[in-house]
């Protein structure tokens, strides 16, 4: 429960508790806090049991920790029924990318060597401006439209 609290923080909390409540009232405060924590845990467990009963027998192995997305995904990836491990291990992204790159480069090489007559082999050169006869003409200005 207190995995994040180190020894220095624990000593600081104890010293502050002694200073705030005093050494004579501190045991009663600790008992009250522990009683409250116990009641909260009992309430939480009873709520979990009620939810499990309401869900029915098909959710008998339901764990509330599975509602955490990281836990859910980890559990699903470890599930042998789905075969996700085989899919994940069978898919090599570097190999797939290398195949696509080789295919694109071979297609570019074929297009470059197959068209020696000066045309671009069906490709469009985006660096050249279109040769349009009316490109210097602007549309008429309409003062009412602006």
From TrEMBL:
Residues 102-146 are annotated as: Disordered. Residues 125-146 have a biased composition (Basic and acidic residues). InterPro entries: TatA/B/E, TatB. Pfam families: TatA_B_E. Its main location: membrane. It is found in: Cell membrane; Membrane. The keyword Protein transport applies. Gene3D superfamilies: 1.20.5.3310. It is a single-pass membrane protein. Keywords: Cell membrane, Membrane, Protein transport, Translocation, Transmembrane, Transmembrane helix, Transport. Belongs to the TatB family. NCBIfam families: PRK01371.1-1, PRK01371.1-4. Part of the twin-arginine translocation (Tat) system that transports large folded proteins containing a characteristic twin-arginine motif in their signal peptide across membranes. Together with TatC, TatB is part of a receptor directly interacting with Tat signal peptides. TatB may form an oligomeric binding site that transiently accommodates folded Tat precursor proteins before their translocation. This is Sec-independent protein translocase protein TatB. It comes from Streptomyces vulcanius. The lineage of its organism: Bacteria, Bacillati, Actinomycetota, Actinomycetes, Kitasatosporales. The gene is tatB.
């Amino acid at each position: 429960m207190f995995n994040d609290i180190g020894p220095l923080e624990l000593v600081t909390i104890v010293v502050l508790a002694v200073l705030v409540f005093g050494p004579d009232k501190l045991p009663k405060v600790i008992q009250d806090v522990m009683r409250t924590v116990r009641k909260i845990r009992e309430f939480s467990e009873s709520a979990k049991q009620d939810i499990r009963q309401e869900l029915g027998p098909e959710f008998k192995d339901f764990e509330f920790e599975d509602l955490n997305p990281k836990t859910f995904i980890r559990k699903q990836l470890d599930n042998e029924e789905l075969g996700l491990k085989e899919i994940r291990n069978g898919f090599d992204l570097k190999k797939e990318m290398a195949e696509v790159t080789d295919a694109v480069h071979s297609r570019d090489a074929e297009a470059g060597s197959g068209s020696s007559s000066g045309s671009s082999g069906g490709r469009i050169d985006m660096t050249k401006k279109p040769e349009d006869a009316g490109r210097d003409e602007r549309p008429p200005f309409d003062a009412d439209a602006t």
